[in-house]
Amino acid sequence: MRVLRGGLPVVATAVVVASVPGCAALAGLSDLQKDDCAFGCDGGEDGKSSDGTITPPGDGPHESSDTGGGPTDAAVTDGAGVDATSDVGVDAPRDAVSEVSTTCGNLGQSCCGSACNGILVCQANQTCGCGTLSLCNGACVNEATDPANCGGCPHACPAGANQTATCATSTCGTTCNAGYADCAGTGTSCANQLASDPNNCGSCGHGCLGGLCSAGACQPVTLASGINTPVGIALDASFVYFTSPTGGTVSKVPVGGGAVVPIASSQSTPQGVAVDSVNVYWTLNASNGGIMKAALPNGSPTPVATGQSLALYLVTNGTSVYFTLAGANTQVMQVSVNGGTPAPISPATKFPYGMAIDATNVYWGTYQVNLGVFKYAIAGGSSSAVASPYSNTLQVASDGTNVYWTTYLASGGVYKSTPSGGNLVQLASAQAHPFGIAVDAKNVYFTTNTAVMSVPVGGGTPTQLASDSTPEQIAVDTVAVYWASGGNGTIMKLAK
Predict the structure, then answer these.
(1) pLDDT, tens digit, for every residue of 258-312?
(2) What whole-number distance in Å separates Cα of residue 449 and Cα of residue 435?
(3) How many CB atoms within 10 Å of residue 469?
(4) Architecture of domain 217-495
(5) CA end-to-end distance (rounded Å), the chain
(6) What is d(CA 215, CA 201) in angstroms, rounded to the nearest whole number?
(7) C-beta of residue 428 within 8 angstroms of C-beta of residue 462
(8) CATH 2.120.10.30 residue spans of the chain
(9) Tens of pLDDT, residues 413-461
(10) CA 381 to chain centre
């Protein structure tokens, strides 16, 4: 804006300044800043952003010329912020930075009507001040939230090891620094290092069940080692059951760790394994194959079905055992848990493979191109497709609401649908030969050639839980994930 600075008598200017409350009393202001206080911020166009330090041409302190349109100032010294000779033009040349940002805005300076920087407000005496905030050690603070001046000035909130002081509603408190927590709930200590504490890994109360904690994530623990290429795996509340086809053994190990307990030896290529409240069952994937069982906890092996060439995988509901055959018949079979003659529940199928069961249906995948996943109603009826065509659907799982399966391909995927084939969703893609699969309420867990993975049941980004050498089948309970590591010869466990 334009300011009529020249042409005003020095005495008259002093009267104007004094008439603005607080202006005359402001310490440290130059004459021209007081001039601004009297007339308002001009945002003028002096040679620099601050009056009083300008070199000619422009406003003084000693103006040698003035090109703004008024009479020439002849080296007249400014007094009390005004020129001795009339200056009715605009200031010249242009300001590099507006005066508003420098002469009007800092704490204690003239606000010139409205221009105060940051949190400052223009007070009634036309100076920039703290307003409703408090002035503490030359700075405006909020005593309700400032931990250095909490509830008063100065009142610094204390903080202990691994803590940061806080202030809320004028009351001191603390928060734990990143990576630390007060897992004891004392409210005074942040002693738990969540990045490495196996009892509080990543969060309070998240134990690693015997595994280490690294970077806030639980690491796998080995339940059994020295196994000759384990493949099949099953769980109950107390044990992990597993097979070794090349070793010819069926064994179990406590879920909490401990000694391996043999169940059967000298078996003809034991492959799949399942367990109910009475027995553990397994297949014999040999030309003289069949289904075997052993009563819990330590019964001897007993045949359930014989003459079943190349029996692969199986499931049970405690009444019947359902199993797949990879031999000449390539069918899905049913037999009583008490033994008897197996009956087919499917027509001749191209290589039925892994199985799952819920209260209504038995499901199986196929090791063949462009087939898919199939089902059979336990109450009786004919088999039908759940999802087709899909290639190499080797393993399937069910949570009672949806059916899940993997496609064993170089760039395979993980899928789910309802038992009728509706609401088909691809949960994961571009996985290297996904094989074993299990599911809980939150995640689908699956193995690839080199890793154990998870993906949310609703879909999302797959997460690598552990690297591994050829992990095979996988199982879950409420607290952990278990798998047979074929390449390492181990049974592994990882806290969820």
Answers:
(1) 999 999 999 999 999 999 999 999 999 999 999 999 999 999 999 999 999 999 9
(2) 8
(3) 13
(4) 6 Propeller (2.120)
(5) 69
(6) 8
(7) yes
(8) 217-495
(9) 999 999 999 999 999 999 999 999 999 999 999 999 999 999 999 999 9
(10) 45
